[in-house]
Amino acid sequence: MTPMDPAPLRRDLVRAASLAALAPALPVAAQPAAAPAAAPTLRVNGAVHDLAGLDPRTTLLDWLRERLDLTGAKKGCNEGACGACTVLLDGRRVNACLVLAATLDGRSVTTVEGLARADGTLHPVQQAFIDHDAFQCGYCTPGQVVSAVACITEGHAGSEAEIREWMSGNLCRCAAYPQITAAVQDAAARMARGEA
Amino acid sequence: MQPFTLARPASLEEATRLAAAGAMPLAGGTELLNWMRLGIAAPARLADISRLPGLDAIAPLPDGGLSLGALARLNDVAAHPAVRAGYPVLRQAIHKAASAQLRNLATIGGNLLQKTRCAYFRAEESLPCNRRAPGSGCAALHGLNERHAIFGWTEACVATQPSDPAVALAALDAVVVVAGPAGARRIPLGDLHLLPDAAGAAADTALRAGEIIVAIELPGPAPRSAYLKIRERESYEYALVSAAGALVLDGRTIRRARLALGSVAMKPWRLPAAEAALAGLSLDDTAALRAALEPAFAEARPLSHNGYKVPLARNAALRVIGMIAEGHAP
Ligand SMILES: Cc1cc2nc3c(=O)[nH]c(=O)nc-3n(C[C@H](O)[C@H](O)[C@H](O)COP(=O)(O)OP(=O)(O)OC[C@H]3O[C@@H](n4cnc5c(N)ncnc54)[C@H](O)[C@@H]3O)c2cc1C
Ligand code: SF4
Ligand code: FES
Ligand code: FES
């Protein structure tokens, strides 16, 4: 059961929140509260960033990596085929290499850097990947972890077969698939027990 | 990627106006961005329609059918209760398409407009391909054509249309509703994709300049329907061949059959003669079912490397009937 597209209400709230957080950050452009004309912004791991003046060709992936130095999301194929660039957009997993950053005004992105708690406690999925040795070179891992978080919250981690199917958009050239599947299964159980 | 400007139209009217002036609509972007990277398309302007209000709605129609807004994301179409209950063939085709994260971006309208996966067409270097460069020839005709067409091809192009949802929608007799500079019109799904012509490979679809897909309308539910996708790995791979079937049954007797094959032609390939011959047959009479399907495959024209697709497609058609029968044994 995929979560439904965020209702307009929620999007408006996100936008309002972004604008509120933006206000003190903008030195000169003390824009009056007239929302629509405000500079386009994108929230990443809770912090609001300015999208103004971006080359329209810039993908979300390049923007995260090159502008924000969030290099967790990886560029594997740059064509949607490997899943290494997976991030959450308004809570849903997407391939950041296939999204133009300039189209994301008012939206909210979570990258692998945004999963752990502020005190450094790892997300249950991150912990499960360590416990199950679910990586070798680690290149695909940030994408796997973010995708797994979504896979579990979508309710697609009910069985090994279901996990394999719903995680198939994340390739692992080291073929750590058995360990990844076990980690997702374990993390789903931990999250169901409320250990998140 | 070549430079382009990005417009965000606020209404459908503005979007069609921009499109008529040459802007290319951007929906999920999962095809378009790759085309721009490969040089398959080089639009000077994009019109971001992905957040046009209302165009992602899924709503019942007065006649008992269902309207799928063109911008509905594939995962949202498959998850919708009305699709789940009434159109299993579509739900299955979507779940077997692309990956979970791609389906959160990809729209149902954009999916129908995807281009062939022919490796010559998608190549980074320039190879003979009438679809990329009209008049340059077709490298696949006598080249690596094991994934290419067995129906409806010409020497100008032997490619296939790779969409899974399109095959399900063809079997469901869906109608594509478009808006354009000259107003709205309705295109039966079977008329949306164009077979290659004799001279050049020409256009992919019947859409005219400036036209935007608004919705895809499904007639009444087809609860006895299924999708079979045959591929080289179990998930996240394009079809070698696929089959969509929708049956109306009277006990174990077929009252009405609709069948469409995927990845065998440049459009979803309906089997009208076989569908007629299946009416009145028992689901348990496999020999008769097979005989009803056989003539459709006598018309197949395999290429040098894809003869395997003929029996594969025939068996897929038979098996999808079996899948429906098993799912609904009395
Ligand atoms: C790695 C990978 C694997 C894939 N595997 C599969 C698979 O197994 N099965 C399958 O079926 N598909 C598969 N796909 C294709 C994918 O489903 C399509 O890319 C997607 O559905 C296209 O939709 P979009 O919204 O992203 O289109 P876009 O990329 O936004 O647009 C595609 C084209 O359609 C036009 N367009 C979009 N919406 C409209 C509209 N409403 N009106 C008019 N024009 C419009 C655009 O201008 C563009 O020309 C795969 C893609 C990738 C990258
Ligand atoms: S089959 Fe069509 S797309 Fe492929 S090389 Fe030939 S003309 Fe190009
Ligand atoms: S880099 Fe985005 S899917 Fe491979
Ligand atoms: S751990 Fe090396 S690619 Fe997955």
TrEMBL record, chain A:
PANTHER family: OXIDOREDUCTASE WITH IRON-SULFUR SUBUNIT (PTHR45331:SF2), OXIDOREDUCTASE, IRON-SULPHUR BINDING SUBUNIT-RELATED-RELATED (PTHR45331)
Coiled-coil region list: none
Position of the signal peptide: 1-30
One Pfam entry name: Fer2_2
Source organism of the structure: Falsiroseomonas selenitidurans
Keywords: Iron, Metal-binding, Oxidoreductase, Signal
Protein name: (2Fe-2S)-binding protein
SUPFAM superfamilies recorded: 2Fe-2S ferredoxin-like, CO dehydrogenase ISP C-domain like
InterPro entries: 2Fe-2S-bd, 2Fe-2S-bd_dom_sf, 2Fe-2S_ferredoxin-like_sf, 2Fe-2S_ferredoxin-type, 2Fe2S_fd_BS, Aldehyde_Oxdr_Iron-Sulfur, Beta-grasp_dom_sf, TAT_signal
Superkingdom, taxonomy of origin: Bacteria
Domain 2Fe-2S ferredoxin-type: 38-115
PROSITE patterns for this protein: 2FE2S_FER_1 (PS00197), 2FE2S_FER_2 (PS51085), TAT (PS51318)
Automatic annotation (TrEMBL), chain B:
Pfam families, A to Z: CO_deh_flav_C, FAD_binding_5
Keyword list, A-Z: FAD, Flavoprotein
Gene3D superfamilies: 3.30.465.10, CO dehydrogenase flavoprotein, C-terminal domain, Uridine Diphospho-n-acetylenolpyruvylglucosamine Reductase, domain 2
PROSITE patterns: FAD_PCMH (PS51387)
Membrane-spanning intervals of the chain: none
FAD-binding PCMH-type domain segment(s): 1-223
Name listed for the protein in its UniProt record: Xanthine dehydrogenase family protein subunit M
Keyword set includes Flavoprotein: yes
